[in-house]
Structures are given as structure tokens and as C-alpha cells.
């Protein structure tokens, strides 16, 4: 079903016709010629003219059939690859969320690009060439049987030896290729993870460590690749050795049939020999195709395993019933649950909860108690291991999954937006929604005003992952998306935590209205939300331990009472008086399997993800109403600039010079020299064979039988010697070039990845350098470069030696005849040049298009939970399939160009044969050239023609290799604007940590016309704490990025200990800084390794790791896990709750022992129980360190030595908490009312 049967039969037919006309005609022509040897003086010129005309006709036939042979097969392959890509991506998008827990997103992206390319290589022109070679082998032996069945039968008797070896080789290569691809997929996963988390890598100086981690997987892949090359080399040597031993056997036995039994004539022997010669040579030349097939089969196994796998929860399924009327009663009946990736850790333990229709139920509890897990079970991201979840009394497993999810609206703390317009992002909530409904939802979510202030309004592009929007703007768009859904069930996971106080009240009112008549589950939100809930359920250890209203639970003094008491810091817990202070709010999220809330891609590729600090729970989104408009316009212009740059950056890349590609292979010159020596020997073998064959004919004219037998035996021994020599030379060529090629691939991947890590952060802001595009580039470019080096060099040297030796022999015996044939060579060369030029253009188009498809797949897979919650899997499948149209159309054009050029090159060869026959006849008749010399020249030409045909098939790989190399060299040649080299810049021993922002003006590189900082002036002395407060987008996080030297100011300076930051060594500066962000980024390794990441300059002892964990109040939790500190945290820390992730991030910063500590809402994700102890740990960690705190909870801000209030990129007031409160200006108004300043 996976291949077009009609196309297959058509192509098989065309190959057979070609082989019949071509390979049958050649031996017959020689047979006739040999039969006419005795009377050639009479009519040899006329006979040769007739054969020449035959060859002209055959050439025309070859021209037509070769075109169809290549064009149709390559077109068919393009169709199949298109279908495979679609089927694979479609099946991935159908998989249940648990499958993604066990399969790395990076590995999946690598398989989409790298593995499917290997399948393409296996099923395109390689199949047609293989069929051609095998059919030639078959028909060659058929000709042999017609000429002399006994001799052919003796030769064919050794075929099982070849078949057995080929089978064993194919099995071994397939197994080794599978292991090689698995290692490359793991390397791709590392690259994807690192590039998606680059700010964290840069902040902790992990570039060298990550490059080594990436390289470790490349070393494994390289080892399997070299073993594969050695096996292929042994097989090639064995194959050619057997072939030449066959020749020796055939000649020895054939001579007995001619001389002793008279069963064969010399002409018959010539016919059998040419049949067997052509057959055996083509069998030998078919072996490289077997390597491609084996690699393709190994790659296809993992692809088709996924395609054939049926998801446990199929989101595309039409099965399951729907309810005519939905009330909204949700019940958990004795639910037991553990995540597929961590079966030994029980998350829900006999959970029983009732959520009544139309009521608002709040889930509260400590970190890791299973609150978020319940939301995932309601959405059927997972199914319970025991028990069931019911909707209106129906087990949700019996309901249609698309219909079920359409009933649910979810708003999360870290919303994911997609790289499209605001309107389209809201429209994701419900298909077919009208513009009026979108506007209504935006108004309800308090997003309408800021959207209308943007130049493009609802058509504003939000950037990848919503990166062009501030945190508060993203949240409001996400709320509008949920509201436009008009859901029966509303799930709120800290839905308003990113909003300022003024907006929060309005949006909360909208959510309160939205909750009416709907079943609502709110997870640990602000205190006011929890108080107003109809029912509050307290969670502990995966069970619901208490249930009741706010007042009932306070009276019970259980879990809820403890949390509220901690949160209110000893105030009257039952007071309903509105809090005037910007106090801590209840901001816990958990569930051991954390739902991913933000695009991994957007974290790094967004221009402003961190410069627009996510809104704190306490600071309004706008200190100045005027700035609200300015900030929003700033976002829009950023989006426009991004899109403009996106279009401009799709430049056509000039092909790289081969000399530079070979330069990167220079360390392997001994292997390449040995490989070239082996290739040269292999290339000269066939011309030598042709020369020996012409000597065979001469032995039959010797009258002395003893002398005749001696010469025949001597020629047979020479054949055996050539066979033995071929074994070693073929192995030498195969192994040496495989090793040099694998080493080059590893080197290019490694230096490419290192070059990416050396670029400044601003380079990653460009959408064309998104993690998805870069990982696709790494996976494909380095392996494609082998099309111009590695084993291809061996084949080229082989072909050139073959052609050279053949022409030396030909010119030696008849320069006139050889000169005529040489005139045809430039035509083949021109065909190759034209083909290379055309295919280079197509390679450019394909590359850009596949990178665009890679971005879609990367965005979809990275945000699979959000997409599943919105039931938009089919939308992304359609988007991906649309991106595949460009490479598909390019492949079809390429097929025709390749087919025409290949056919022309093959046709020219036969025209050269025709000319050689006609002119050879003339020379024999008129200039007395011995007919033996014509045979020698033509024998040499047969072998050179085969080599020429083989050389023309290298052109497509060569064209792709030069484009891929050019892309890599462009990256390697780029000089980063901020160097992370340890040798550049100052460093000193007595680092104190004094910081001064002096007249800093700054614009982001992609938007030089938008001023972010407008003369920032603020300083902090060693050991002091500076708190930045202000609106979203006012420049708080931008100042931190300047301090980390992610960017440099355009004007002014950042002074560290009185030295300009631009003059300081970047690795040294960053080694003095520790950072804890609101959204901590963890790596897919163990808890211990994540903590150890805090200091990558040394090997850390386990005692230090444990001590840091204790300081972050993490140790007790870790010790409850089965694997303790060796517990794997999953991709982006997905196996942990947000609170658990945050404590690991704090431990990571503490273990660094930095002189400067940056806290960006460092405790905002912790539950109220943990928050106090962690805050105490942070207060202790601040002792003796310079500390910068961005818009944190009031207690943190109050204790700061300096509080700087920012607006529009400048500090509008600063001082201590008491000083600013006494001044009764911006800060006072902020603290007392939370309202923006007029």
C-alpha cells in the first residue's frame, strides 16, 4: 500500500526493455563481429557501419528510456516521501500525551528530517539504478546461456556465495544504521533542548558542557558508522574477488571447451564472456545501492513503527458517543494514577472527588499533591490506571474525545500562543467563530483596548510562542481564547496571575461571569478566588483530604487552614477585608507531571520573552497609563520588524567551493590517501581486465598447444591475482572513506553546534534561527556534505582512474580511433555542469521549505499539550502538509532535470560506441589496423563508458552537498557581536559586585527604531539589594539582560566594579552571577546534574549538591523519590511540578556561590508552605551578595536597600520602602491601591 504499483510496473518494464535492447545487442554485435573475423577484409567496413547504425538506434532508445527511468523513479520517491512525512507527522499528532513523555521531542524532530532523508536516498534513483544493474546482470547471463550454457552454468554456480554474503551484509548494515540513527536522534534531542533553553545555558556558562554532551552522542553514531563502513568494505572486496575468480574459472574452463572438446568457437567464447563480463560488472556496481537500501530500511523501521502504532488515546478517533445535554457533573471514582514515564511513583492514590455542575470548585494543596494531574485526566491527556472519571455519570473513556475536549476551556498561568495573528490565536478556541465573537471575547478578557492600540489591531502577529507580547498581554489573549470557546467546563490554572491589579479585577469579574452556569475547577489561585469558590478541596499525597467552603475549612483547621495562615502572614485569616497591599497571592501549581505552559521555541526565539518580564502578582501592568499604549505599539512594531527580517533572510546561498569542504577533512588525509589509493587500484582493474580479455583472443591463434595452455594458465593466474588485490583495495577504499566521512560528519555537526552556541542572544531572536530550524539544519547539512567528500571521493577517484586507464590503453593501441571517441566527452561534461547548476537551485528551495516545515513541526510538538487541549491537532497537520508542498514541487522539477541530463549522458556513450564501430571499420579496411586493436580499444571504451555513467549519478548528491556546506560555512564564518571566548576581556580576583547603569540607552537589534531603555541611571553597592518594580515592558528584565551581557547598550555603560561590562570577559562576568527566574528551565537529566549545572567550571561533589538542595528546601522531597538525586526530571522538567522545578533552580543558583544574585519572581511558583522557608533561604543567600530583585512579593521589596520604580525605560523614583512610602508618589500609589498613576 505504501508504493504506487502502477508506477512500479511501468518503471520495471522500461528497465527491462532498456536492458533487452542494450545489453542483449552488445554481446550479439560482438558475436556477429567475431563470427566475421575470417572474412573481415571482404565486408568489415559495411558490417561495422551496420553495427554503428544499431548503436545509434539503441542510443535514441536509451535517451528516452533513461529519462523515464530516472524521472519517474525520482518523482515516485518524492510522492512516497511526501506521503511518509504526512503519515508520520499525522500519526505523531494522534499519539496520547503519555507517549510524548517517553519520546523526546528533539528526537522526533531529528527523525522527521534525518531518517526520512535516508528513506528518500533509498527509494529514489538508487532503486532504478539497482534494477538496471540487476536486470543487466540477468540478461548478461542469459546471453551467456545462449552462447554456451555449460560455461555459463559453471560461472553461475558460485552465485550463492555472492547472494549469501549480500544478505549478511544487508542485515548487518541495517542493524548498524539503526543504532547510528538512534545515536543521531539523541544528539538531535540534546541540540533541540539546548537551543530552546539558550539563555539558561549562557547564564550558567554551559556552552562547553553542552557541546561535549552533544558530541558524546555523535561519537556513538560515528563508531557505528565506521563499523558499517568496514563491513561494506569487506563485502565489496569479497564480491569483486569472487567476480575475478569467476573470470579465471570461466576462461580456464572456456579454453578447454574451445581447444579440447570443440564445444565452443572463439566467437562463442567472446559472446559468453561479454555477457558474463557485463553481468558481473553490473552486479559489483549494484552493491553501493544495497548500502543505501540497508540504511533506508533501518531508518524506515523507526518511522514505520510509529506509523503502525495505534495510540492508546486517539484524538482523531470518531468513536465514542456524545451527550445530547451536558450538565457538567464531574466525579473521580477511586482513581489511581501514575505517569507512563514514571510508573513507580504514585501520583493519585484512591482519589474520590465530586465537582457539581454549575459550581466553582477550587483545588488547593502543597506542591506535588496531584492537583494539575486531575485537570489532565479530565481532558483525557491520560486515563486512570484504576477507577474512572465520569461526566454526568458517563465514563469519559466512553465519550468521543474531540467532543469532550470541545466542552472544556482552559486558562493556564504560562499561556502558549502560536506564531500567527491575535485574531487567529483567539479563533483557535472555536472553529468558525465570527469576528464579532472574537471582539466580544477580547472585551470580556480586558484585551480589546490594548489590541486596538496596535497598528494592525487583531491582525497583529504575536511571534513564535507569543514572544512579541508581554506576559500580561499573552494571558489576556489566552483568556479570550478560552471564553470564545463558550465551554461547559472551565479549568482555571492561576489564570490571572500575570495581570496587573487593575486588569485582574476586571478579568476576574469576566471570569466570574463566565463561570455562571458552568462547571469550573480553579487550581490554587488568588485568595479572593478561593474564598468565592462554592467548594474548596484540599489535596495531600494524591488524595482529597478535605472538602468544604472557605469558612468551613478554616474551622476544620486542616490543610487549607495551614495554607491560608501561612499566606496571610498571621493576619486574620477569616477577614473579608480587601487587601490594600500588593501582598503575596496564592500561586501554587503542581501535579507531578507538569503541563507545559510555554513554547520551548518561543523562550529563546522571542525577541522580548524575558525583556518583557512576566507580570508579577503584585505590580500593575502599567504604572503610567500613557505608557500602556507606547508598550503595545512597541510590541507591534517588533512583530513587523520580525516579519520583514524573516522575508529578507531567505536569501539564495551560493554553493560552497569543494576545496573548502575538503579542507575540513584535512585531519583525515592519511585515510583519504589510503582510500584514494584503493579507489585508484579499483578503477584501474577493469581496464586491465579489458586488456587481458583482448589477450585471450590472441591465445586461440597459437598453434603450439603447450604454449597455448601455458599462456592461458598465466592469464588465469593474473585474474586470480587481480581478484585478491581487489579484495584488499576495495576494503581499503570502503573503510578509509567511511572513517574519513564519519569523522567529517561528526566534526561538522560539532563545530556547527559550537558555532551556534557562540552566537550572541540577538542572533537567536531572528525567526529563521528558531530551535526547530537550527536542529533541522544540524541534522541534514552535515550528513549532506558527504555528497562532496567521504565515499563519494572514492567513487570519483575510482571512475576517473577507470576512465584514465581506459583511455591510456585505447590511445596506446589506436590514437586515431580513441581521438574520435574523446570528442564526445565534453558533451557529458556539459550535461553534468548543467545538471549541477539546476539541482543546486532546487536544493536551495528544498532547504528553505524543509526548514519552514521543521519550524511548524517543532512548534506543534513542543506545545502538544496546548494543542491537544484545544483539539487543534488536525489544524497543525494541515499546516505542516501545506509547508511540504514546496519541496514536493521542487522534487518533481528536479526529477525531470536529473532524468534529462542522465539520459543525455547515457545516450552520448552509445553515440561514441557507434562512432568507434564505424571509424574502426574504416581503419581496419583502409589503414590496415589489426582487428585485435579495435577490440582492445572498444573493450577499454566499454569499461570507461560504465564509469562515466556511474560518475553522472553523483551530481545530485554533489549539488546538495555544496549548498549544505555553504550554509554551514556561513554560520562558521559569522563573528558574534558578543564573544564568549575566555581569552577576550578583563577578569580580576577581588570581584566585589558593585553595579552601575550609567545613561544606558538600548534598542533591540531587530528594531533599532524602538527605544527600550532611555537613559537608565541606577547603581547598587556590593552586598546591597536593588528591587526593580514597574510595568510590563518598562525595561526591568532588559536591564538584567544587559548585566548578563546577552546584549550591550547602544549608548551609556553598565559598570561592574567600575569597569565597563563590554571590556569584561563574558565567561568571567557570568560566572559571578546566579539567576533564578519565574519560569525555571531544567534539562533532561537527573536532579543532581541539574543542580550541578550551577557551576560548570568544575566537578562538584555530592555533598555540595545535597547542601545546596537543603538550602533550597528541596532535599526532603528528593529523598522521597525512588531514585533520589538520580531521578530524571524529563524534558524541560516535565516530570516535576512547578514548585519542585523552582526549588531545583534555586539550588542551582545557590551552588554557584555567586557574587551577584538575580531573582526574577523566584518564589512566585511556590506553595505558601514552601514559600516562606525558601524566601528565608534566599534572604540568607543574599547575605554578602549584590542582589537584584525584579517585581517580587511585597516582603522582598520591603527589605530591599534600594527600590527603583521604572517607567518607559527610565527610573522615575528610587529609595528604601520607607522613603518611597513617605514620598507618596508612584510607589506609594502602587502599594496602597495597586492602581496605575495618572
From TrEMBL:
<feature type="transmembrane region" description="Helical">
    <location>
        <begin position="230"/>
        <end position="252"/>
    </location>
</feature>
<dbReference type="GO" id="GO:0090374">
    <property type="term" value="P:oligopeptide export from mitochondrion"/>
</dbReference>
<keyword id="KW-0813">Transport</keyword>
<feature type="transmembrane region" description="Helical">
    <location>
        <begin position="153"/>
        <end position="174"/>
    </location>
</feature>
<dbReference type="InterPro" id="IPR003439">
    <property type="entry name" value="ABC_transporter-like_ATP-bd"/>
</dbReference>
<feature type="domain" description="ABC transmembrane type-1">
    <location>
        <begin position="51"/>
        <end position="295"/>
    </location>
</feature>
<feature type="compositionally biased region" description="Basic and acidic residues">
    <location>
        <begin position="571"/>
        <end position="582"/>
    </location>
</feature>
<keyword id="KW-0547">Nucleotide-binding</keyword>
<feature type="transmembrane region" description="Helical">
    <location>
        <begin position="52"/>
        <end position="78"/>
    </location>
</feature>
<feature type="transmembrane region" description="Helical">
    <location>
        <begin position="127"/>
        <end position="147"/>
    </location>
</feature>
<feature type="transmembrane region" description="Helical">
    <location>
        <begin position="897"/>
        <end position="917"/>
    </location>
</feature>
<dbReference type="GO" id="GO:0015421">
    <property type="term" value="F:ABC-type oligopeptide transporter activity"/>
</dbReference>
<keyword id="KW-0812">Transmembrane</keyword>
<keyword id="KW-1278">Translocase</keyword>
<keyword id="KW-0472">Membrane</keyword>
<dbReference type="InterPro" id="IPR017871">
    <property type="entry name" value="ABC_transporter-like_CS"/>
</dbReference>
<dbReference type="InterPro" id="IPR027417">
    <property type="entry name" value="P-loop_NTPase"/>
</dbReference>
<feature type="domain" description="ABC transporter">
    <location>
        <begin position="995"/>
        <end position="1233"/>
    </location>
</feature>
<dbReference type="InterPro" id="IPR036640">
    <property type="entry name" value="ABC1_TM_sf"/>
</dbReference>
<dbReference type="InterPro" id="IPR003593">
    <property type="entry name" value="AAA+_ATPase"/>
</dbReference>
<dbReference type="Pfam" id="PF00005">
    <property type="entry name" value="ABC_tran"/>
</dbReference>
<dbReference type="GO" id="GO:0005743">
    <property type="term" value="C:mitochondrial inner membrane"/>
</dbReference>
<dbReference type="InterPro" id="IPR039421">
    <property type="entry name" value="Type_1_exporter"/>
</dbReference>
<dbReference type="GO" id="GO:0005524">
    <property type="term" value="F:ATP binding"/>
</dbReference>
<dbReference type="InterPro" id="IPR011527">
    <property type="entry name" value="ABC1_TM_dom"/>
</dbReference>
<feature type="domain" description="ABC transporter">
    <location>
        <begin position="330"/>
        <end position="566"/>
    </location>
</feature>
<keyword id="KW-1133">Transmembrane helix</keyword>
<keyword id="KW-0677">Repeat</keyword>
<feature type="region of interest" description="Disordered">
    <location>
        <begin position="570"/>
        <end position="591"/>
    </location>
</feature>
<feature type="signal peptide">
    <location>
        <begin position="1"/>
        <end position="19"/>
    </location>
</feature>
<feature type="domain" description="ABC transmembrane type-1">
    <location>
        <begin position="673"/>
        <end position="960"/>
    </location>
</feature>
<keyword id="KW-1003">Cell membrane</keyword>
<dbReference type="Pfam" id="PF00664">
    <property type="entry name" value="ABC_membrane"/>
</dbReference>
<dbReference type="GO" id="GO:0016887">
    <property type="term" value="F:ATP hydrolysis activity"/>
</dbReference>
<feature type="transmembrane region" description="Helical">
    <location>
        <begin position="712"/>
        <end position="732"/>
    </location>
</feature>
<feature type="transmembrane region" description="Helical">
    <location>
        <begin position="929"/>
        <end position="948"/>
    </location>
</feature>
<comment type="similarity">
    <text>Belongs to the ABC transporter superfamily. ABCB family. Multidrug resistance exporter (TC 3.A.1.201) subfamily.</text>
</comment>
<keyword id="KW-0732">Signal</keyword>
<feature type="transmembrane region" description="Helical">
    <location>
        <begin position="819"/>
        <end position="839"/>
    </location>
</feature>
<keyword id="KW-0325">Glycoprotein</keyword>
<dbReference type="GO" id="GO:0005886">
    <property type="term" value="C:plasma membrane"/>
</dbReference>
<keyword id="KW-0067">ATP-binding</keyword>
Amino acid at each position: 500500500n505504501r508504493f504506487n504499483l502502477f508506477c512500479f510496473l511501468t518503471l520495471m518494464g522500461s528497465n527491462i526493455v532498456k536492458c533487452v535492447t542494450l545489453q542483449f545487442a552488445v554481446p550479439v554485435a560482438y558475436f556477429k563481429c567475431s563470427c566475421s573475423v575470417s572474412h573481415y577484409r571482404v565486408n568489415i567496413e559495411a558490417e561495422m557501419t551496420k553495427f554503428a547504425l544499431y548503436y545509434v538506434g539503441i542510443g535514441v532508445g536509451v535517451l528516452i528510456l533513461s529519462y523515464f527511468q530516472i524521472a519517474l523513479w525520482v518523482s515516485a520517491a518524492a510522492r512516497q516521501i511526501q506521503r511518509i512525512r504526512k503519515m508520520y507527522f499525522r500519526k505523531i499528532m494522534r499519539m496520547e500525551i503519555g507517549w510524548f513523555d517517553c519520546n523526546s521531542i528533539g528526537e522526533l524532530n531529528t527523525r522527521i528530517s534525518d531518517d526520512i532523508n535516508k528513506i528518500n536516498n533509498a527509494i529514489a534513483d538508487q532503486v532504478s539504478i539497482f534494477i538496471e544493474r540487476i536486470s543487466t546482470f540477468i540478461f548478461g547471463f542469459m546471453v551467456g546461456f545462449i552462447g554456451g550454457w555449460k560455461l555459463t552454468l559453471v560461472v553461475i554456480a558460485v552465485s550463492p556465495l555472492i547472494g549469501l554474503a549480500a544478505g549478511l551484509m544487508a542485515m548487518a548494515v541495517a542493524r548498524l544504521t539503526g543504532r547510528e540513527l538512534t545515536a543521531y536522534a539523541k544528539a538531535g534531542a540534546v541540540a533541540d533542548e539546548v537551543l530552546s533553553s539558550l539563555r539558561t545555558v549562557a547564564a550558567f556558562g554551559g556552552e562547553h558542557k553542552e557541546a561535549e554532551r552533544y558530541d558524546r552522542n555523535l561519537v556513538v553514531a560515528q563508531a557505528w558508522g565506521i563499523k558499517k563502513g568496514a563491513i561494506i568494505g569487506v563485502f565489496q572486496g569479497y564480491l569483486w574477488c569472487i567476480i575475478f575468480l569467476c573470470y579465471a574459472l570461466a576462461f580456464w574452463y572456456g579454453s578447454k571447451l574451445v581447444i579440447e572438446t570443440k564445444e565452443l568457437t572463439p566467437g562463442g567464447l567472446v559472446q559468453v564472456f561479454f555477457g558474463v563480463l557485463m553481468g558481473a560488472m553490473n552486479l559489483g556496481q549494484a552493491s553501493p545501492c544495497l548500502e543505501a537500501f540497508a540504511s533506508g530500511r533501518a531508518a524506515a523501521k523507526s518511522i514505520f513503527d510509529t506509523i503502525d502504532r495505534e495510540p492508546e488515546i486517539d484524538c482523531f478517533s470518531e468513536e465514542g458517543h456524545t451527550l445530547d445535554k451536558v450538565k457538567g457533573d464531574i466525579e473521580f471514582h477511586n482513581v489511581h494514577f501514575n505517569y507512563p514515564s514514571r510508573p513507580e511513583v504514585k501520583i493519585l492514590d484512591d482519589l474520590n472527588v465530586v465537582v457539581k455542575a454549575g459550581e466553582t470548585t477550587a483545588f488547593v494543596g502543597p506542591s506535588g499533591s496531584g492537583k494539575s494531574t486531575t485537570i489532565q485526566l479530565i481532558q483525557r491527556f491520560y486515563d486512570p490506571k484504576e477507577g474512572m472519571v465520569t461526566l454526568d455519570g458517563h465514563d469519559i473513556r466512553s465519550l468521543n474525545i474531540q467532543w469532550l475536549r470541545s466542552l472544556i476551556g482552559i486558562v493556564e498561568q504560562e499561556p502558549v500562543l502560536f506564531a500567527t495573528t491575535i485574531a487567529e490565536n483567539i479563533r483557535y478556541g472555536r472553529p468558525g467563530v465570527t469576528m464579532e465573537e472574537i471582539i466580544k471575547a477580547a472585551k470580556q478578557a480586558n484585551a480589546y483596548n490594548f489590541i486596538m492600540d496596535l497598528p494592525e489591531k487583531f491582525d497583529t502577529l504575536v511571534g513564535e510562542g507569543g514572544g512579541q507580547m508581554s506576559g500580561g498581554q499573552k494571558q489576556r489573549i489566552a483568556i479570550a481564547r478560552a471564553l470564545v470557546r463558550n465551554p461547559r467546563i472551565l479549568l482555571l490554572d492561576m489564570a490571572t496571575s500575570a495581570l496587573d491589579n487593575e486588569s485582574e479585577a476586571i478579568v476576574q469579574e469576566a471570569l466570574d461571569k463566565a463561570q455562571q452556569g458552568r462547571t469550573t475547577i480553579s487550581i490554587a489561585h488568588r485568595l479572593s478566588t478561593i474564598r468565592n469558590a462554592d467548594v474548596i478541596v484540599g489535596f495531600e499525597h494524591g488524595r482529597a483530604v478535605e472538602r468544604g467552603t472557605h469558612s468551613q475549612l478554616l474551622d476544620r483547621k486542616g490543610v487549607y487552614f495551614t495554607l491560608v495562615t501561612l499566606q496571610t502572614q498571621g493576619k486574620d485569616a477569616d477577614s473579608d477585608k480587601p487587601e490594600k497591599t500588593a501582598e503575596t497571592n496564592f500561586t501554587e501549581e503542581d501535579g507531578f507531571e507538569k503541563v507545559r505552559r510555554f513554547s520551548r521555541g518561543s523562550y529563546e526565539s522571542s525577541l522580548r520573552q524575558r525583556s518583557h518580564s512576566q507580570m508579577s502578582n503584585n505590580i500593575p501592568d502599567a504604572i503610567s497609563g500613557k505608557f500602556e499604549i507606547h508598550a503595545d505599539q512597541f510590541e507591534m512594531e517588533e512583530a513587523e520588524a520580525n516579519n520583514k527580517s524573516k522575508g529578507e533572510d531567505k536569501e539564495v546561498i551560493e554553493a560552497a567551493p569543494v576545496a573548502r569542504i575538503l579542507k575540513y577533512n584535512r585531519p583525515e588525509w592519511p585515510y583519504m590517501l589510503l582510500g584514494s589509493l584503493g579507489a585508484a587500484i579499483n578503477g584501474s582493474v577493469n581496464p586491465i581486465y579489458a586488456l587481458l580479455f583482448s589477450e585471450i583472443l590472441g591465445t586461440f591463434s597459437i598453434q603450439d598447444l603447450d604454449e597455448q595452455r601455458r599462456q592461458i594458465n598465466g592469464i588465469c593466474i593474473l585474474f586470480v591475482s587481480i581478484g585478491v588485490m581487489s579484495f584488499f583495495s576495495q576494503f581499503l577504499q570502503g573503510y578509509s572513506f567511511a572513517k574519513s566521512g564519519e569523522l567529517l560528519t561528526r566534526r561538522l555537526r560539532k563545530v556547527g553546534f559550537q558555532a551556534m552556541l557562540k552566537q550572541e542572544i540577538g542572533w537567536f531572536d531572528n525567526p529563521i534561527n528558531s530551535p526547530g530550524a537550527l536542529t533541522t539544519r544540524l541534522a541534514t547539512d552535515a550528513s549532506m556534505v558527504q555528497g562532496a567528500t567521504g565515499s563519494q571521493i572514492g567513487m570519483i577517484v575510482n571512475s576517473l582512474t577507470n576512465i584514465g586507464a581506459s583511455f591510456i590503453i585505447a590511445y596506446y593501441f589506436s590514437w586515431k580511433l580513441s581521438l574520435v571517441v574523446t570528442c564526445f566527452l565534453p558533451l557529458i561534461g556539459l550535461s553534468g555542469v548543467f545538471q549541477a547548476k539546476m539541482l543546486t537551485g532546487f536544493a536551495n528551495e528544498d532547504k528553505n521549505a524543509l526548514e519552514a516545515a521543521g519550524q511548524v513541526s517543532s512548534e506543534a510538538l513542543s506545545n502538544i499539550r496546548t494543542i491537544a487541549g484545544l483539539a487543534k491537532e488536525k489544524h497543525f497537520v494541515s499546516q505542516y502538509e501545506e509547508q511540504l508542498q514546496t519541496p514536493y514541487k521542487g522534487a518533481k522539477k528536479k526529477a525531470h532535470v536529473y532524468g534529462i541530463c542522465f539520459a543525455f549522458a547515457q545516450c552520448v556513450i552509445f553515440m561514441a560506441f557507434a562512432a568507434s564501430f564505424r571509424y574502426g571499420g574504416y581503419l581496419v579496411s583502409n589503414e590496415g589496423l589489426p582487428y585485435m586493436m579495435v577490440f582492445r580499444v572498444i573493450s577499454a571504451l566499454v569499461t570507461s563508458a560504465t564509469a562515466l555513467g556511474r560518475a553522472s549519478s553523483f551530481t545530485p548528491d554533489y549539488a546538495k552537498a555544496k549548498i549544505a556546506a555553504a550554509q554551514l560555512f556561513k554560520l562558521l564564518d559569522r563573528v558574534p557581536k558578543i564573544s564568549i571566548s575566555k581569552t577576550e576581556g578583563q577578569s580580576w580576583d577581588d570581584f566585589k559586585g558593585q553595579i552601575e547603569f550609567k545613561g544606558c540607552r538600548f534598542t533591540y537589534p531587530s528594531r533599532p527604531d524602538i527605544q527600550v531603555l532611555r537613559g537608565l541611571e541606577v547603581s547598587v553597592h556590593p552586598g546591597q539589594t536593588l528591587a526593580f518594580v514597574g510595568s510590563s515592558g518598562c525595561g526591568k528584565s532588559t536591564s538584567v539582560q544587559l548585566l548578563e551581557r546577552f546584549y550591550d547598550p547602544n549608548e551609556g555603560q553598565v559598570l561592574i566594579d567600575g569597569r565597563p561590562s563590554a571590556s569584561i570577559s563574558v565567561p568571567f562576568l557570568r560566572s559571578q552571577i546566579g539567576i533564578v527566574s519565574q519560569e525555571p528551565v531544567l534539562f533532561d537529566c537527573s536532579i543532581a546534574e541539574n543542580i550541578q549545572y550551577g557551576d560548570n567550571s568544575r566537578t562538584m561533589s555530592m555533598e555540595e549538591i545535597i547542601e545546596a538542595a537543603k538550602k533550597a528546601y528541596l532535599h526532603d522531597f528528593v529523598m522521597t523519590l525512588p531514585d533520589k538525586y538520580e531521578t530524571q526530571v524529563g524534558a524541560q522538567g516535565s516530570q516535576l511540578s512547578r514548585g519542585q522545578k523552582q526549588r531545583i533552580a534555586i539550588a542551582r543558583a545557590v551552588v554557584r556561590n555567586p557574587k551577584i544574585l538575580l531573582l526574577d519572581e523566584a518564589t512566585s511558583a511556590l506553595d505558601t508552605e514552601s514559600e516562606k522557608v525558601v524566601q528565608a533561604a534566599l534572604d540568607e543567600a543574599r547575605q554578602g551578595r549584590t542582589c537584584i530583585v525584579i517585581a517580587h512579593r511585597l516582603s522582598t521589596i520591603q527589605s530591599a536597600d534600594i527600590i527603583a520604580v521604572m517607567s518607559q525605560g527610565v527610573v522615575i523614583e528610587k529609595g528604601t520602602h520607607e522613603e518611597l512610602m513617605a514620598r507618596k508618589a508612584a510607589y506609594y500609589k502602587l502599594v496602597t491601591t495597586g492602581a496605575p498613576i495618572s
